[in-house]
Amino acid sequence: MNPLLKTILSPQALSAMVQAVEHFLPEENPIYVDPFCGVAEAAFQLELKNCILNDSNPHFINFYKHVKNGTF
Length: 72
Prior knowledge:
The chain has helices spanning 11-24, 41-46, 58-69, and strands at residues 31-34, 50-53. By secondary structure, it is of the alpha+beta class. Strands 1-2 form a two-stranded parallel ribbon. The protein is globular, with a radius of gyration of 12 Å.
């Protein structure tokens, strides 16, 4: 999946973070919860069906609502 936004994370750092998260996810019906998602790169790389993203930044919340609704 192509990232929606570019961040300062290097590809190596993102890869290491995704591998670390994958290590702890169960194989059946994994649920990923990220309480401070920022740009949510790890969540998009994992491409999970059950994913809960949260952030206190209203601009991020509004952005992801538009992406989800297809109005981006």
